[in-house]
Structure formats: structure tokens, C-alpha cells
Amino acid sequence: MNANVVLRCVGGILLVVGATMSTAFPVGLMMGDSVEQCFGVLSSAVITMLAGGIAVWFCRSTDLGFREGFGVVTFGWIASSLFGALPFVWDADLSLIDGVFETMSGFSTTGASILTDIEALPYCLLYWRSMTHWLGGMGIVVLSLAIMPILGIGGMQLYRAEAPGPTSDQLAPRITTTAKYLWGIYLLLTVAETLLLLPKMSLFDAWCHTCGTLATGGFSTRNTSLAFFDSAYVDGVVTVFMFLAGVNFVLHLRALRGRPLFYFKDEEFRAYFAAIATGVVTIGLFLYIGNFYDRDLATILRHSAFTTVSVITTTGFCTENFDIWPPYARCLLLLLMFVGGCGGSTGGGIKVSRILLLVKYAVGQLTQSIYPRAVANLQLNGQGVSASIMAKILGFFFIFVSIFFALTLAICAFEPNLATPVAGIDAHPLETALSASIATLGNIGPGLGKVGATQNFSWFAPHTKLMLILAMLVGRLEVYTVVVLFLPKFWRR
Amino acid sequence: MRVLIIGVGDVGTEMARILCEARNDVVVIDRNGALLEQLKDSLDVMTVTGDGSTMSCLHRAGIDQTDLLLAVTGRSEVNILACVLAKHAGVAKTIARVRRADHFDSIAEGVTAAVVGVDEQIITELECASNIIDALIHPQVKETVRLSHPDAQIVNFQIKSGSPIIGANLANFPHPEMLEQLRFCAILRYGQMIIPHGQTTFSARDELYVAGAQTMIEELIEWADPLETAVGRVIIAGATQLGFMLTDMLRPLDIRVTLIEPDERLAAQAAATLGNRTLVIQAQSTDSGALREAGIDACDAFIGLQADNESNMMSCILAKRLGAKKVIASTQNLDYMQVIAGINLIDCGFSPLIAAINALIKCVPSDRRQTAAVLKRVPAEVVEFVVDNNAPAAGKRIADLKIPNDIVLALIFRGDDLVPAIGSETIRERDRVCVLLHHNAIPQVEKLLCGPARKK
């Protein structure tokens, strides 16, 4: 691997991260933080930009192969999380592991927090926390491609290594143009949601929650997440935008170009919509049967819709403690965590299109066992899916599920605090381990039991946190990009 | 500029690379999805899998925003149809690669290429045949590159033993007046490229790349190789499309052609179309008896043009062993060009693919720089740069520029004048500087000669 070009690209990414971090300083001051409180953020931003600048200045190679692509994306994310953790270590007195956990959780749009009292943080840190979501949602590397053509590096390798989904749609002949389109839509949606939230909250809260929504992250500025605002209007707006963030952004672009009907022509979108509709209706039904919310249909609909969308898009905002809901609801939510958003969205998980193709593949296999000479016909949106793409999806599914179980096993084996009850809640160790594993690997955030909607990740031992940090990275970069770096073959020439 | 390329064989891939590096928006169409995936790994292009001769596929590739269409698949019909469709969709310029010269009416006013919507047709075999003729005229010439200035050429020729140029160097060249008009760009010695400086001594079997006016180069070759005789008899192996075209073009030059073709039907067809002046022998070209029958020991040149690359090269080696003075091989495989350059028994190699690429890049407009030719004997390109007034190099002497050793400034076109780009020359605004370099170095030289990249 050509380390020079990797360093150059990582340097470029750090410049973008540092520049974004520096905006936390004026924002914090404007919101009433003291200069002392914001000093850590400012110096961290300077250090990050310096490190990035030095790397870009001294590394001049632009010879990027696909091995280097994997390296740039993985190390770029790791470096961003390390430098992004500095303000937390500096200003909030977190340990380095805790700081990196919080930052990785932000960049990977997981939204799992180790903070017990969020509202105690200075504004500049709350803002930076939300900005990590916003940067990570569309992809730090894609952003760097869009605004830093001076890196002089074409980047299909980078784009494909970071962009979510089984295939990457190209919207324009040049990768930088594609990246600009995607960020343009992202920015547009951000502005729209912020404006819509303004009637019910301050600009600061609106912006931070918008970042959490569109990146499908889930960091809030309040200890009780969105339940703090207790407003059906806010829940409605956030539900709609979480839903939009989980849709392939290419469809948004088509819609903006005047073809809104394209949404329903897309098979993945229809499956995504069907999954959500099923979730909302059946969970609502079980809530009704179980006598929740005084059987008030409007309230039931509001909470079941919000929670279903929040979980399937892997956002992880909470309005209600779904851990006390009927077992059917909890189990379905756990399953939806695996599904995730659409390919090409900001959501995590396995992705709807992959699940859809896996189902089609399974049906095809069954058909072929009855008609051994039948010709396989695997299509998505009327386009044939090649055997190599299908093989990649099968491989992805296997590795994803393997990592999920391995991580669960590791948590059960090595986590000393797993069985200790917290704040009078029963520990449910297995539920906790399973859901903590998928909540980080699928970039959701909250899970069940001791990592449930009203809990957090602070009680984990440092070594478990390290594993969860890795899981968040692996999940966000869709397994292959990170895992190949662990293969000795990758490093051999 | 948005460019649509149909077909990513060797020609399409090379064109995509050149256009991509010139910062164009490139979209490529091919029926083979796996090829496109490979291309995507190395180039920043958009790919569309499908048949480029269908409107639905062209629409998916954004034909309505396209400025230039290059239809370069191996099939003329597909290429022409794609151009016709694209013209109707409003593409400003369409270029098709075709295999035959007689698709369109060139004599009477009728169905010309332009009428149906093909702005330019690159007749691959015709281009290649004229390249071969360039090399045939002088036995020692191996490659000729024509530049945008009509008189200017870059020629590669080999020094024969006994030539008066052996032992000379540039510092005390016997004909100093030639140096004022010629530029010795590079020496290919045992497959190694050397950039000559004042003290580099020329030796036998060196291949020289010389740039300058055509007449001056001919004068140099005449002096360096006084014993050369005019070509009178040529043996061509392979009644391919290229074989026919070359035979046709050699006839007016008073060169007698003997054609060898193993296939009975093709041989008979060739005899019928070429008439009595051309002798057609039906035999394997790797059969020494047949080659002797064709008069291999008395011929001036043997040209292997068969479709089968390997047996083609074999027959060339055999022909040289049997006494052919000059042996030329054609190949459809670009990687074989370097293999041929490494075989001493084969004098020069040509490929219709390279001819197609070189003809295509001349048709692609560019304001700042233009690739004049892709060389394949050495991994280098000839690129012409237009000097901008705010470029770092403008107004400086060439010797004062910091140019890496492996980049050769060959010629300067100043209005209609041809100036060799030697160290004492000053680069002026609006000069067209012709540079021999590896394509990796293009951005660096472009910055130097054309100034910082302009925003589009």
C-alpha cells in the first residue's frame, strides 16, 4: 500500500473535520459558554487542522489504487474519531476511550452515548457532538471529495469504499459532481427540517436535532431525547425527515428534478415503505391490545410510527421507553435494527436492498430445487443483478451476522458489569448483550435492557467500549472496507 | 465537455483515459459490464451497461447533454448507427470508427457520412496502412508521428552499421546546420530510452527519435543512411481488410505486391479483386517453401497483416531469417507492440488500434493541450501544449525551466515557424510546445506551460 497517498487523503479529511470543529467556538460563545469552556474545542480544531495540513503538505503522491482506497477510508475515519475526541477529553474531562466512543458514535451516526448528563455539557460540545453526526451521515470522505478537488485524486475507489449499499449509483460523469449533488440534497433537507422545527424549539436545538435526524444519528441535546419537547408536531416532523433520510438520496435528486413518482417506481423504496407500514400497524395493534396509552389511537399511532421509523432508519431518537412495550413490539424492533435504511441513504444496518435481494435469491433457490434446469432471473428495478454482486451480498450478510454473534459472545464473556442491575432495572444480560451488539454494529444507538431507550453505554468496561467502537466503524463502512485491512493478504504486495 | 464513448476495447479505454485526464466528463457504454467495472477502478468515469446503438441506452447515458460522441466498438455498423442516433438527439460532433472506406458515397453528391450524421469517420485500416507506407519509404524508419503543424514530424529511425552518424555526438555534430532545425529527442538503445545530451555518442542499432520539418528529417536520413534503395517489391501476408487497403495504396507508388493467404476462398477472392498485377499465393505464411516461392530473398519488405497475432509474428521472424530486407508486423493486441519492439528480427510493428487512437485524438478539440500521438515503441506520448500568458514558463529560456530529465521538449510551433526546443530558446506566449513525455507527467508540464488550471 502506498502510505504517502493515504496520508495525504487522511490529511485532507482532517482539514475538513478541523474546519467544522472550529465553528463550534463561535457557536458556543454565542450561546453563552465562557471562553474557558470553549477553549478546548478551539485548540483541538487548530491541532486537527495543523495535523491535516502537515500531512497534505508533505505527502504529494496522488497515485491511488483500490487498496489505498480502503486504507484512506478506514484510517480517515479512525483519525477523525481520534482528533474529534479531543474536545471531549479537554472540555468534558472524559477518558480518551470515552471520548473516542462518543465521537465514533457521532461519526458513524450510531447515537449511542456514554454521557449520563447530556445537559451539563457546554453548548460548544453539544454542537460538536451533533456536527459529528452531520459530517458522518453523508460520509466524511465523500464530503472531502466534493469540496477538496485540490487533493488531485479521482475517487471512485474512495466513494465505493464509503458509500452505503450494495451498488453505488453514479449521478454524474464525475465522482466529484456526484458527491456535490448528494451533499446538496443533504444540505437542502437540513435547512428544511431546521426551519420546520423552529416553532417548537430554539434555533440551536432545532439545528442539533436536525443533524441527528438527517444523519440518522440520534444524539440529542436533552437527557430525555425528543420526549423533552413532548409535542406531536415535533414528533411528526422528525418522523417524516427520519423517513426521508432512510431513502436512497438518488431518488430525492430525481424527485427534485421533477419526477416525484419515481419514489414508488423504485422496488427498494416500496419494500422500505412496506416494512415501515407493517411495523407501525402491527406494533400499534399490540399496544392497543396491551392497553397502552389508554387505547388512544392518535397517541398509539404517534409513538409506534416514531419508534418504528427511528429504529429502521437506525436513527435511535426516543420519545417513549419502548423497552416496556409488549414482547412482539420489542422483538420486531430488534429485527428492524438488522434491516436498516435503503442503499444510498444515511441509514445503517444491512440495507433494505440487500435484504430484498437475499429474499429473491432464496425464492430462486427454492424454485431451482423444483425445476433444476430453471434459469435464475435475479432482478432489481428491472435490471439484472450479476452473480458477482449477489455473491458479495451473501458474503456481506454472512460476515455481518458472524460479527454480530462474535461481538455478542465477546460482551457476554468479557463484560463484568453485564449482570449488575442498574437503577432498579432488571439486567436481562442476554437481551442487553444482543441488542448492544446490533445497536452499535447497525449504527442504531439504543437497544434493549441495560442499553435501552432510557439507558446509556457508560457502564461498560473500557475494553468492551473499544470493541463497540470497532463495531460502529465496521458497521458504518459496511464490513468489507474495514475487515480487509485485517487480512495479511491485503498488506502483501 | 461531456464526452460519450461507446465501446471500451483497447481504443475506447485509451480514449477514456486521455479524455479523463484532460478533465472532461466522460461517460462510457459497453455491453460487457465486467469490463466497465474494471475501467471504473482506474478512471473517474460514469459507466452504462447496454447496447450503444439503441436510443434507450443512449438516453440512460445522458445523450441530450453530450457534446461529443466517439463510437469506437469493433463493429462499423454499430458505430455508424450510434452516430446517426446521437446526431438526431442533438450531439454537436460525432465520430465513428469504421473498418471499410466504402460505407459512404465519396464521389457523387449523395449519401455522405455527414449527411446521415457521422461528422468524422476514422477508417482504422486506412490510417494504419498509411502509417505503414510512411515506414516503407525509408527502410530504416520505424515510426512516424505527424503533428498539428503540417510540415512537422517526429520520426524514429535506426542507425545501420557503417552509417557516418556513428561516433558523432551533438556537441560536435558533422552537420551543425541540421541541429538548427532538428531536435534529437530520444535514443532507444536495447529497449532503454535515453535522452541525448551534448556528449551522448550515437552508435549502430540505436533508434533515434528526431523531430523537425519533414524535408530536414529526410535530408538527415539520406545522409545517415546513404545506401538505401527505393522499395520495389513487397510481400504481404494476409488478405485482410488492411492487406487489401495497403495493396491498393502501394499500386500507384509502383511497388509490386505479392500476397500470401492460406484460406482458399479468401485467396481466390483476393486474386479476383486485385487483378493481374498482384500475385496471390495460397499458402501458410509460416511455410518457408511458400515464402521462397513468393521470392522472399529478393523482396524489399515483408509485411505480416494476418488476423492471428501470434502466427503473424512467427511468419515475420521466419521471413527475416529467409532474407527479407525489412520486416513489418501488425497486431491487434496493444501489449504485443512492446513485444515486437523487443524482437530484433522484426523491424517495426503497427497496430490498427494505435492508428485509430492517434486519428481520434486529432479530432478531439482542446484549447490548452492536445495529445498528438500515443507512441507504443516506448511508453510515452507526444502532447502539444499552448503556452498561456500567465504560465510560469512564459518568457523564460528552456534551460532555466526546472524540467525533469525524462520529459523532452521537442519542437515549438510559433505561427507558421518550426523551432527546435533547445536550451537557449525562449518560450513565448501562444507558442505551441510539442513535448514527448509519459502521461503521468502531463499535469506537471501543463501547469508549467499553460499556467494554473482554469475553473470551468
Description:
Chain A is an all-alpha fold and 493 residues long. Chain A has a domain at 3-179. In chain A, 64% of the residues lie in helices and 1% in strands. Chain A has 22 helices and two strands. In chain A, helix 3 packs antiparallel against helix 4, helix 5 packs across helix 6 (123-138) and helix 18 (387-414) packs across helix 19. With 456 residues, chain B is α/β, with parallel strands linked by helices. Chain B has helices at residues 10-21, 33-42, 55-60, 76-88, 113-116, 124-137, 176-179, 214-224, 241-250, 264-274, 288-293, 309-321, 336-342, 352-363, 442-450, and strands spanning 2-6, 25-30, 46-49, 68-71, 93-98, 120-123, 141-146, 152-158, 182-189, 192-194, 207-213, 233-237, 256-260, 279-281, 301-304, 326-330, 348-350, 369-374, 381-386, 408-414, 417-420, 432-437. In chain B, the strands form four sheets. A six-stranded parallel beta sheet of chain B has the order 3-2-1-4-5-6, sandwiched between helices. Chain B has a six-stranded parallel beta sheet with strand order 14-13-12-15-16-17, with helices on both faces. A five-stranded antiparallel beta sheet of chain B has the order 7-8-11-9-10. In chain B, helix 1 packs parallel to helix 14 (352-363) and helix 6 packs across helix 9. The longest helix of chain B is centred in the first third of the chain and has 14 residues, at 124-137. Chain A binds chain B through residues 66, 152, 154-157, 170, 172-177, 386, 388, and chain B through 2, 20, 25-27, 33-34, 40-41, 43-47, 62, 443.
Fraction of residues in helix of chain A: 55-70%
Kindly estimate the percentage of residues of chain B that lie in beta strands according to DSSP.
Answer: 25-35%
Q: Please provide the ordered H/E string of secondary-structure elements of chain A.
A: HHHHHHHHHHHHHHHHHEEHHHHH
Largest sheet: spatial strand order of chain B: 3-2-1-4-5-6
Which class of secondary structure composition applies to the elements of chain B?
A: alpha/beta
Distance between the termini of chain B: 9 Å
Question: Helical stretch count of chain A?
Answer: 22
Overall shape of chain A: it is globular
Number of strands of chain B: 22
Secondary structure category of chain A? mainly alpha
Cα radius of gyration of chain B in angstroms: 23 Å
Of all chain pairs, the largest interface belongs to: A-B, 15 and 16 residues
Q: Look at the structure and give the mean pLDDT of chain A.
A: 88
Low-confidence stretches of chain A: none
For the largest sheet of chain A, list the strands in their spatial order.
1-2
**How far is the N terminus from the C terminus of chain A?**
8 Å
Sequence stretches where pLDDT stays below 50 over 5 or more residues of chain B: none
Gyration radius of chain A, to the nearest Å?
Answer: 22 Å
Oligomeric nature of the chains? heterodimer
